[in-house]
Design a protein that fits this description.
The structure is a homodimer of 181-residue chains.
Chain A lengths: L5 H12 L4 H7 L12 H13 L3 E8 L3 E8 L1 H12 L10 H7 L9 H26 L3 H6 L1 H30 L1
Helix pairs in contact in A: 1-4, 2-3, 6-8
Chain A binds a DNA duplex (30 and 30 nucleotides) through α2, α3 and β2.
InterPro entries (chains A, B): Tscrpt_reg_PadR_C, Tscrpt_reg_PadR_N, WH-like_DNA-bd_sf, WH_DNA-bd_sf
Organism (chains A, B): Pediococcus parvulus
Protein name (chains A, B): PadR family transcriptional regulator
DNA sequence: AGTAATCATGTAATTAATTACATGTTTTTG
DNA sequence: CAAAAACATGTAATTAATTACATGATTACT
């Protein structure tokens, strides 16, 4: 790929909240931000180096225990600026790649016997996903105070929930459509 | 990137409908399939060669006019099998990358003055997109007959429209939320 | 005290995808 | 008929991202 390197901005955004190590940053993709973006440590470590060379971030070496060396990264003011500029820039919307939709596109026969099992599988996935997201929201935002503290995150989660509901409804509608056909 | 090479299956799916050239295939991404996937000719031509080497497709050379050489690609039975196996396989859902959502995630202050212009921009984009998609649907599927002929495509378009409506509603809700805050 | 899990950081090989470079033919339009 | 637009096919350079390889330290558990 030769994408837009959005990971750079994610790392900046995460470092803005608190200084942390590459390991910590990588972990974020297992939890909160992982809900809608992926990255692994082998991509993160080299990128952090590059970003430091570009003076967007810097690090402080910390020794833990006897020998273990940690690198606490933090944002520079140049990084701040770059990040803010990104927030204000127009967003690229061409990245939505839903493989199921893609498959569906190629089913030209409404009576195809492939359709029903495909939809069932998808329903299962999205139901689970919806349930998971709702749980996440309750866990992370049980009250208004928490929402105000991490507003963007709450909006994104809410959006994800909305999206899953829409998806589920659409799948259910589809089942009805092919049932009568 | 090292993605799942879904383009391979797209090309197979398109060739299944009719034999065509790499140029024709590339053009598909400017119209119908371009609604939700991107690819350019410099990616397509080499991939077609590789797929032919793998015996998923084959081509027939056609001379147009005096000199122009076209390559009409078509699916082999092995290609058919590969394509069908893909349709039946579980779909990878990790590819949804909405940059706006990503930005939103990092706005932790509900009173941030960045929020409103960001949303306005996004609303404009999605309203246009919605309008475009609705037009597309009317153009391509004016009656039930057309829908039955290209069922999957109609479902996908309908889904895209649904999604845009959901997105617009969510954005509108968000505006209300930040207005009162 | 031993061991498993987690913390912590990197590199190498491969593949996917974008942008730019490069060339020539045929058809349409003024 | 000349020019522009569209047809047609490729390669090169670069960047992004995944998977696998590689190593070692610290903490938690039994």
């Amino acid at each position: 790929m030769a994408q837009k390197n959005r990971l750079k901005y994610i790392l900046l955004g995460l470092l803005k909240k608190q200084r942390q190590t590459g390991y910590d940053l990588a972990k974020s993709f297992d939890s909160d931000i992982g809900e809608f973006w992926t990255a692994n440590h082998s991509q993160i470590y080299p990128l952090l180096k590059r970003m430091e060379a570009d003076h967007l971030i810097a690090h402080e070496a910390i020794t833990v225990g006897q020998k273990l060396q940690k690198k606490q990264y933090y944002m520079t003011s140049a990084g701040q600026q770059t990040f803010n500029a990104w927030l204000k820039s127009p967003s690229d919307l061409t990245g939505s790649h839903d493989e199921f939709i893609l498959k569906l596109f190629f089913i030209d026969d409404p009576k195809s016997e492939l359709l029903r099992p495909m939809i069932t599988m998808q329903q299962q996935y999205h139901d689970e996903k919806l349930h998971h997201l709702e749980q996440q929201f309750q866990e992370k935002f049980p009250n208004q105070k928490r929402i105000d503290q991490d507003f963007g995150h709450s909006l994104v989660l809410r959006h994800a929930i909305d999206r899953e509901r829409g998806y589920s409804n659409w799948l259910a509608e589809m089942v009805k459509t092919i049932k009568t056909e």
